[in-house]
Amino acid sequence: MNDTSLTILKKYWGYDSFKPAQEEIIDFVLKQKDVLALLPTGGGKSLCYQIPSLLNEGLCIVVSPLIALIQNQVQQLKDRGIKAIALTGGISQDHLIDLLDNCVFGKYKFLYLSPERLQQHLVQERIQQMTVNLIAVDEAHCISQWGNDFRPAYLNCAILRDIKPETPIIALTATATPKVAKDIVENLQFKNFKVVRDSFDRSNISFSVIKEENKQKRLLELCASSHKSGIVYVRSRRMTQHLSDLLNKHQIRADFYHGGLPKEAKKNKLKNWLANKTKIMIATNAFGMGIDKADVDMVIHYQMPDSMENYYQEAGRAGRDGEAARAILLTNKDDTQQLKNQFLEILPDVSFIKMIYKKLSNYFQIPYGIIPDGSFPFSIESFSETYKLPAAKTYNALRILDQNSIIGLSQNYSRNTNIQFITSKQNLRNYLAHNKEAFELTQTLLRTYGGVFDFETKINILLLSKKTGLSEDRILIHFEQFRQDEIVTFKNSYRDVDLVYLVPREDDLTINVFASKVKQQIQTKVDQIEAMLAYTSNDVLCRKIQILNYFGEKTNNTCKICDVCLQSKVLTNKDYKLIKEAIIELLRISKKSSRELNVILPYQESSILKVLRHLLEEDSIQLNATNEYVLKK
User: Fold this and answer.
1) Could you tell me if 358 and 239 are in contact, meaning their C-beta atoms sit under 8 angstroms apart?
2) 355-406 pLDDT, tens per residue?
3) What is the mean pLDDT of the chain?
4) 142, 93, 82, 76: which is closest to 114 by C-alpha?
5) Is the pLDDT assigned to residue 473 strictly greater than 80?
6) DSSP readout, 281-342?
7) Which of 196, 327, 616, 631 sits 20 to 30 Å CA-CA off 184?
8) Section 572-596 average pLDDT
9) What pLDDT is attached to residue 413?
């Protein structure tokens, strides 16, 4: 390893040495080779392009998928005295030109941008003029149509190879199966390249699957037992707030985080969690990427993720300090069907896509064989309502048509109307007493959306319009008045899609071109769901072996600390004696349930239960009427 690399590492990051895989990757990059770096979450991916770029003249262009991740990394570089900028949204054209000019004239070492920003002609033109020593494509699994987070804009990252053909490219990801890795290499047109795969084994994390009907009770016990900091992942925004409230009611400092929060709220919540003012963060998968918090000792998945890729990346946010940590998946008998309902039933097959395409063309009265000029303003909700189509499945079908360049949809389609009552029910009745129309609207709202007093709830204005007979505009006027009178919190954002036809209308012939790819993508999603379900149901094979095998890393070495390994572990005389003494000592103080003993004692639940059975058999303890253990006198 180049001593200068170590000098840079020490100077800016304070480390004395690299991890083995980092060292190998940096060496290859410095030799001007393309590199695909497959490193687990917490493996130090960013250093693999930051160090070699700092050693060479020019700047590094970093393509990254999330604005929050970009901003976080740019701020970290600035904090270390390294010049970096991010081309995020909200930048005026004049300011964008100034920033690009500064990069051209060598004032920055790192230029971060999204794949969408990369598509701008102005950006491409200025990159041509820059001295670029390295191109880094972060979260590179987004390139692959077989990846869990496929983003069509990522397919165009290869434009950087055309603009800067002699500049090496490093692609980095923590969640690539062999199939995804092959896709990345091909799409980025790697030439003289190396694939460096670090072991995905996180030996300090104990993985476990807990089958539990009363998830809330078990969650409280687990969060109370956490000594440092934790993350609880759920799949819905409402659930984040619900579980946060639950934990706080039981004196566990918790907060919630999801993609729909205002920017300032996200910033403050993250700041408090990083400073340990908040112990547990309840979050959707919008939280965590690029956040470097070392002392997370527990990550809980309260609801089952849709893929092993997502699960392992999120679980890997535990134990970055190298200390013992836990990754726990809570599941029960309802989870399997819920997972399939949420992720499989909304997948459009080829026949559904063909039907949507025909109806879309009829909706706009497009003649066969014609490409119409211009764009059409388009409401997905109205289209779905007109033809009585399932909205989510329809939206996914339109996205596939967009991804395959049959139509073009404007970015950032959204219609979000969120409301929550912030007054008492009695005050609400008094407020509505002399306004019949508002009263009937409110009654319909309460009947349609349970929990609107307890949670900020996303509502469908079109549905309320149908039920009440009021126009959508009239409903929005009422809600805005409610907000001004401090009856509700009310947020409404709406933007129709601008839709463009990119090829002539040829109905089934149009879809047949990419039909086989759609079938493969559906099968990939089915396989991901099945792999996740297989992991949760397999209580025979070590969790580590299951995870590593999924990512193409073959091993027969068990971890000895997951729930499967500990369940099969023979209880030694020494361990039996220690657990027995600990149980008796606790029961001398007060009666305890097996749950309470399991939370308090630092031993595997199965071992504690074995010792409890032996103590019952030898008549040292007994169970009372409420299933609590007490010492026999």
Assistant:
1) no
2) 999 999 999 999 999 998 888 888 887 898 899 998 888 988 998 998 888 9
3) 87
4) 142
5) no
6) EEE-TTS-TT---TTEEEEEESS--S-HHHHHHHHTTS-TTSS-EEEEEEE-TTHHHHHHHH
7) 327
8) 87
9) 46
The answer to whether 25 and 100 have CB atoms below 8 angstroms apart is no
The number of helix segments (H) and strand segments (E) in the chain equals 28, 21
CB 526 within 8 A of CB 540: no
- Judge whether 328 and 222 are in contact, CB under 8 Å: yes
CB 26 within 8 Å of CB 35: no
8 Å CB contact between 121 and 100: no
Q: Which two tokens stand for residue 343?
A: 């992720």
DSSP track, 362-431: HHTTPPTT---SS-EEE-HHHHHHHTT--HHHHHHHHHHHHHTTSEEE-S--EEEEEEEE-S-HHHHHHH
Q: How many CA atoms lie within 13 A of 344 on its CB side?
A: 17
- CA-CA distances (angstroms) from residue 421 to 155, 246, 428, 452, 483? 44, 19, 9, 6, 9
Amino acid at 582: A
Q: What percent of the chain has pLDDT over 70?
A: 95
What's the distance, CA 361 to chain centroid?
35
Residue 93 confidence (pLDDT) = 82
Angle at 244 between CA 242 and CA 248, to 5 degrees: 120
CATH fit for domain 3-197, picks 3.40.1000.10, 1.20.1250.20, 3.40.50.300, 3.30.70.1450: 3.40.50.300
Does domain 344-413+497-525 correspond to CATH entry 3.10.310.10? Answer: no
State mean pLDDT over 546-556.
88
For 222-231, the pLDDT digits (tens) are: 998 888 999 9
**Under CATH, to which class is 570-631 assigned?**
mainly alpha
pLDDT over 70 (residue 494): no
Q: Are 59 and 50 in contact (CB under 8 A)?
A: no
For residue 331, pLDDT over 80 is answered with yes
Cα(315)–Cα(327) distance, integer angstroms: 6
Question: Is beta strand 414-421 parallel, antiparallel or unpaired with respect to 457-458?
Answer: antiparallel
